[in-house]
Write a structure and sequence with these properties.
Elements (H helix, E strand, L loop, with lengths): L3 E2 L6 E2 L5 E3 L7 H12 L1 H14 L7 H13 L3 E4 L8 E7 L3 E6 L4 E2 L17 E2 L4 H22 L3 E7 L8 H7 L8 E8 L11 E10 L15 H15 L8 E8 L10 E10 L2 H22 L2 E10 L6 H14 L1 E3 L2 H13 L1 H4 L27 H7 L2 E7 L10 H7 L2 H23 L1 H15 L22
Parallel strand pairs: 6-9, 6-10, 10-16
Antiparallel strand pairs: 1-2, 3-15, 4-5, 5-9, 7-8, 11-13, 11-14, 12-13
Helix pairs in contact: 1-13, 2-3, 2-4, 2-13, 3-4, 4-13, 6-7, 8-13
Length: 488
């Protein structure tokens, strides 16, 4: 399966023809023109997405990725404000003026500690320390493509209003959007649109898990572990004691709560008592009040561990995000347009790639999904479940009426944050799903411009869902500045 060609150091994706399965909804001439305009540039957008895939820059370090998207938007007539909310890689790109203001979110950060070639078999890239296992290279590029398509439609029709593309860094644990919300960057926005790479297509109304994340740092006294151990106080003992207490605590917290950690620093040599150790924690639940309570108990465990090991402890909240607030009016609209666009059909060569990926799932953890399911769109439903993920889009959704969708950029059955997701995201399979999202977002934005009553209806539903006009947003991460070095 020939995927891409590398002239010099820049990777160019060789795109196969995109075949879309259209739904039963009637496609208007205007929609056909918007879709055709995006299809005409799919090779160009595929090149941009693959370049970001190649760079795989982690949270708050996405300088090249952010600049590439900014440059693309500037060429298309957008005014770009860079470095917003005290974040060098965050930006806001604007076209038009006045109301309504429709915003589209774009992400572009990669995940550390995992990488993969665009191959259906496990094939890490030597020397590479990160990969787009959540597909944010497609997210950022597809959203930019949608914003440009809306701009072209506004130019052609003379439609009044504003289209904005928000470049949002560090979604993976860095809570980039939270700082942008806190800075008031969404204060005049009427509706926000977003999407996410996935193994299926859908726009159902579901929530997500609220999350608080932080690093606990223990400081002790170094000593020779054999000659004079009594003179040492192990910082690693502090970390391990904390972890032991938190693990016992799991029995006594709500069963749908998730707590996970990784020891990021544990010492350098067994014969040296480590005087510094660090552990990175996440706590999640769809109810943010539960998350806040569990986090307080995690902090108490850390304090107890420091007391018992005679070490010193301090901690830093790295990120904190709200659960998503789904709005049915907007979800129905997004679903309608996704149904117009339809899902992704594979070429015979891509089917072989998908089957090979499917074999890698194994009998125990594999999915019963078939490659052909990428061509379907899931029925719309308002669901109360939160899935297993968290996103800083949650904070945006409590600040502005927000709607999202997912597109099949991965082989059906693929889990997020996996090497299989990176592999498909580096091929035409990922690009095809990205274009499904770009078209669906563009058509949804156009509908909102044409029917302000939809915006008003969504706003009324959103105010009620938040708990009334007296609701006041407060970030879970407090007043801290952006954690720009959290991936260093």
């Amino acid at each position: 399966m020939k995927l891409f060609h590398k002239p010099g150091s820049v990777s160019i994706m060789m795109l196969a023809a995109t075949t879309l399965t259209f739904g039963q909804a009637k496609v208007t001439k205007e929609q056909q023109e918007v879709i055709a305009g995006l299809d005409a540039k799919k090779a160009h957008y595929g090149t941009i997405a693959h370049q970001i895939w190649d760079w795989a820059e982690v949270g708050y370090q996405e300088y090249k990725s952010s600049n590439l998207l900014q440059d693309e938007l500037k060429k298309e007539g957008f005014t770009v404000q860079a470095g917003v909310a005290e974040i060098p890689t965050a930006f806001v790109a604007t076209y038009g003026s006045g109301k309504p203001v429709i915003a589209i979110l774009a992400e572009y950060d990669a995940l550390p500690g995992i990488n993969q070639d665009a191959s259906p078999e496990r094939k890490p890239v030597e020397g590479k320390k990160a990969g787009h296992a959540c597909g944010h290279h497609l997210f950022g590029t597809g959203s930019s493509a949608a914003a440009i398509a809306v701009k072209n439609w506004m130019q052609k029709t003379g439609q009044k209003g504003t289209i904005r593309l928000y470049g949002t860094p560090a979604e993976e644990g860095g809570s980039g959007k939270v700082y942008m919300v806190r800075a008031g960057l969404f204060s005049d926005v009427d509706v926000v649109l977003h999407w996410h790479p996935a193994d299926s297509n859908g726009a159902d109304g579901s929530t997500s898990l609220a999350n608080i994340a932080g690093k606990f740092r223990f400081r002790g006294i170094s000593a020779h572990a054999a000659a004079s151990p009594e003179r040492g106080r192990s910082a690693l003992d502090g970390v391990e004691s904390m972890n032991y207490m938190v693990n016992m605590m799991r029995e006594h917290i709500p069963s749908d709560t998730r707590v996970h950690y990784v020891i990021t620093k544990g010492g350098e040599a067994p014969n040296v008592v480590p005087d510094f150790a660090e552990v990175y924690y996440y706590a999640r639940n769809k109810d943010r009040a539960i998350v806040q309570d569990v986090w307080k108990r995690i902090v108490k465990a850390a304090e107890g561990a420091a007391l018992g090991t005679e070490t010193k402890m301090d901690y830093e909240i790295i990120g904190g995000v709200y659960n998503l607030l789904p709005i049915e009016t907007l979800g129905q609209l997004m679903h309608k347009n996704l149904s117009v666009v339809g899902g992704v059909s594979y070429t015979p060569e891509e089917e072989k790639f998908a089957e090979k990926i499917g074999e890698s799932f194994g009998a125990t953890f594999g999915s019963i999904k078939k490659p052909g399911e990428a061509a379907t769109v899931s029925p719309f439903a308002m669901r109360n479940d939160a899935g297993g993920g968290s996103t800083d889009v949650g904070d945006v959704s409590w600040a502005v009426p927000t709607v999202g969708m997912r597109a099949a950029t991965w082989v059906p059955g693929t889990a997020a944050h996996s090497w299989q997701a990176i592999a498909a995201g580096g091929t035409d399979i990922g690009t095809k799903g990205m274009m499904v999202a770009a078209k669906s977002l563009a058509l949804t934005a156009i509908d909102l411009y044409k029917d302000p009553a939809l915006i008003q209806k969504a706003r009324e539903e959103w105010i009620k869902a938040r708990g009334g006009l007296e609701y006041k947003y407060e970030a879970l991460l407090g007043n801290r500045k952006p954690a720009l070095d959290y991936r260093k």
